[in-house]
Known about the structure:
Elements: E1 22-29, E2 33-39, E3 42-48, E4 58-61, E5 67-75, E6 81-92, H1 96-107, E7 110-116, E8 121-124, E9 131-132, E10 149-158, E11 163-165, H2 170-173, H3 176-186
Antiparallel strand pairs: 1-4, 1-7, 2-3, 5-6, 6-10, 7-8, 8-11, 9-10
Amino acid sequence: MPGCNQTLSGLARDCQPNKGGIKEVLITYWDAIASVTITDGKVSAITFANELAPDYFKKYVLRKGMGSMTKTLHKTDGGNTYVTVVINMNWPRMETTKRAEAAALALNECMCIVKDANGIYWLVGYSEPVTSQDGAESTTGAANSDTNQYGVQLGCDEDTYPYEVPANLIDSLLGEEEQEEEEQVQQ
Length: 187
């Protein structure tokens, strides 16, 4: 009988295709969210603090190979566990619009939903706000083959690994502009 009220279930061999990286990150202000409901280990609802004028999630679409999400489990000598989640985004081509976004993210507490390269969405910032992290580098590069880019690194310490967000919830979390862009991409 487990001592910490957790039951192991086992896992069958997974033969599904698997790709690394992230495709997009959806970001809103931490205080824009009133509640997140978890049902059967997945997000079942996200409620905005201001229903009349919600601060919808903004979408940051990444080029292939320009983003990642890392989850690191920590266990202290006292038996505490937590997971550090770090989101790396690189935006090619330095320009004013991207500089302004990087600067705004550096100042705010956020909640994020990360879409991985397999098309699965993950909530980051459930138990703690996501903030800008040290270490993100922006560079012009030196050679013609180098990337000219802004680097953004966001992260937080969560109580557990990120929860999956079902794809059918995403449209309700995006403003009209982001929904229209999604429809144009799918056509």
